[in-house]
Amino acid sequence: LSVVDGHAIVGQIIAVSPKAATVLLLTDNTSSIDALVQASRAPGIVEGTLEDKLVMRYVRKDYQVNLGDRIISSGLDQVYPKGKLIGVVVRVSEDKIGMFKSIDVEPSVDFLRLENVLVLVSSERELPDLVKEVAK
Question: Rounded to two decimals, what is the model's pTM?
């Protein structure tokens, strides 16, 4: 299940217990989200890093990407709903060799000030499964 702060993605639930849930933050180096550059619709994968930052990979060089462009979820990973804000482009670089750009993304969530989150349930079928998991 995906976790948001009301306007942007925080992460996803990876474990539950009767009174708590463990959330894998989108900045974690094991996290990845199928994403789009909102303006150009350039597809790519947003990954967390060891420095609690985000990098968007696998964006072909022929797509236009500008500083300040919003990065949103594509919905293709079936974890996050389409169109949820991930962050904003803060740096774009291209190697002379290769076919992809490297894009640094500033998360839209301020994790140091995060107090409340929402868990998004995409279908009525997922909620009973979650309740059964917590009951175990």
Answer: 0.82
